[in-house]
Amino acid sequence: MAELFTGRILYPGASEYDQIRYITETQGLPPDNMLDRGTKTELYFRIDGDCEDLLWSLKSKIHYEYDTGIRPMERRKYVFSSLDDMTKVIIPSKLESSDTLVEMGDIWQFIDLIKEMLAMDPCKRITPIDLLSHPFITMAHLQHFTRSS
User: Fold this and answer.
1) Stronger pLDDT, 104 or 25, i.e. the higher one
2) What is the phi/psi pair of residue 57, to 5°?
3) Nearest Cα to 88, choosing from 26, 16, 35?
4) For residue 92, what pLDDT is reported?
């Protein structure tokens, strides 16, 4: 959905590590319980700290290359620090200022929906029934604009 809306690949990694790196850069690390249960966790993540305070972190590009012999590659045209940065590639067309406000409101609702759909923890991810009532889908955020329908 994000790729259709923006016209750009959201996570254009050449490898699983690159894609996981892009995801963690924009959305943070997966929850510890997911990392603890993951079958490939130790390929991409490392555990740091002492016995009482263990913390997962993404392996650096150097550590990943050392462990696997695979060199990570940067494939992104735009580097996002969060999903909110998608506004950098979704540029409203030249419209009247009131129409630009409408379009920006629509973009922010879209980004909110994408963030809910891509929540790392599946228990926190938007359900299909809730998705159908999200303002981006219902366009409820556009109702107070008289020229919108």
Assistant:
1) 25
2) -145, 155
3) 26
4) 62
42, 114: one domain: no
- In sequence order, what are the residues at sequence separation of 6 or more whose Cβ sits closer than 8 angstroms to the Cβ of residue 21? 13, 58, 61, 72
Q: Which residue has the tokens 């590639």?
A: 89
* CA-to-CA dists, residue 142 to 112, 113, 122, 128, 139, angstroms: 15, 15, 29, 22, 6
88, 108, 131 - which closes a domain = 88
Which spans in the chain are helix H? 2-6, 16-27, 32-37, 41-44, 61-68, 97-117, 128-132, 135-138
- Domain residue limits at 41: 7-88
DSSP classification of residue 88: G
Q: pLDDT, tens digit, for every residue of 44-82? A: 999 887 667 778 999 999 999 999 999 999 888 888 889
